[in-house]
Amino acid sequence: MMSGIDLQMLAAANDGVxxxxxxxxxxxxxxxxxxxxxxxxxxxxxTQLDGHEYVASAAKxxxxxxxxxxxxxxxxxxxxxxxxxxxxxxxxxxxxxxxxGKVVAITGSSGKTSCKNxxxxxxxxxxxxxxxxxxxxxxxxxxxxxxRLNESHDYAVLEMGAAKSGDISxxxxxxxxxxxxxxxxxxxxxxGFGSIENTAKxxxxxxxxxxxxxxxxINRDDVFAADWRESLSPQAAxxxxxxxxxxxxxxxxxxxxxxxxxxxLSFNANIRLDNTTSVLPIKMNFLGIHNVRNALMAVAMAKxxxxxxxxxxxxxxxxxxxxxxxxxxxxENDLQILDDSYNANPQSMYAAIDVLVSFSxxxxxxxxxxxxMAELGPGAAAMHFNVGQYAALAGIDCIYVIGEFxxxxxxxxxxxxxxxxxxxxxx
Length: 427
Known about the structure:
Shape: globular
CATH class of the largest domain: Alpha Beta
Radius of gyration: 23 Å
CATH architecture of the largest domain: 3-Layer(aba) Sandwich
Low-confidence stretches: none
Strand content: 15-25%
Helix content: 25-40%
Oligomer: single chain
Distance between the termini: 47 Å
Number of helices: 14
Number of domains: 3
Number of strands: 21
């Protein structure tokens, strides 16, 4: 709940015109069905809906005002602005400017949500946390998260997504993080960037304008790590750079003794910071070696926030994967189902296939149901073909494929598989 903010402040921040009486503002809402007393309703204009059509409905539900691009003929205070989407970000920044706690920002091609949830679970051991809900990480979702911040929160954990160059820079301007991290760079959403190099440059915007007391957390294993390191000379010179790696002992935070079973992961997190070393025995309810790296990033950010080793261990033990993110579902007759249906890119597909094969062994049949990977651009067909190949080479017994690129996935599998009969395309 926002505090100490009123309509006149919001109008001034947006160079907008307030019609009607001033009033205190306690929250922002973009869905008229979810408006509560004290909210300002922001009328966003999209490709399918125009929020201006719902201003009257928001008023009936208790909105104290609406932010609009064109005045509505109803008895409700309104702030008229040039762009309501931009105004949403400005409002969030007003609230962020008043916030005194620590802010962490996480981006990357994949692993953002899992890493965010891991860090939030750790920080909940020592304080109150305002974290991004789900993956509400874009120019709409992030401002809605930031506007929830108030004096009761010790920490904010913000997930930042991007569809094009400049997106992360815009979100950083709103969130103003003290600690920033990139989980990895891969082909996810490459269609909007044109190249993986452009993706890396856009994600690197998260390190822009870190304060002198800030920390940059880098995935040392990533091919773009050296580029990020070069851009962080002020922070690095002050020793405020933390490098993570899966098993590279030159990193500040790395893993050893990694084991995995159907119930989750266990490993030792080795930490070397400020001339001190420690080893944390970690157990997690996550599957996939890639989640070890996500956890190490969360550990690094927690150490930057001076969280104790005990709280880190307990936090990671308490967190669980979200639905559709490599979750284990028990079936009948000893059937084990791995649900990784939320979203996909080539690297996440490979990781899920690896987990499936590791638990199948020689006595159980492994079956993969593979759908499309979106936003991959001109190389999409080849990437789906490669996933099919990978599944066959990894030892998947048969696949079911569905979607626009089902034929390419199936062709890749059949090129490496001895049994084409068992592979089906779902219409």
